Amino acid sequence: xxxxxxLDFRRRRLSFRAWHRGTREADLMIGGFAEKYAAxxxxxxxxxxxxxxxxxxxxxMAWAIGKAQPPEYLQGEQMAALQRLDYVAKAMR
Length: 93
Hints:
single chain; mainly alpha; DNA polymerase, domain 1
């Protein structure tokens, strides 16, 4: 079982990476997603998000808005949550 302190550190690091993507649009989309969901993530969800963050912003954004099909290893509940975009309006406030 992973150390909770380690998971907390990984969540904070992922949050920073999510909010510092390089463009305001990507920051809002990816950072807003992390802000809404990361606190409840376990090891599998954190691993998924790390894999997502290794992708190019343009790809992540295309997957989120349905303009492109995400790779199979990123499909699932978390991708569905990313695609709902219900976190973006909050991030813009």
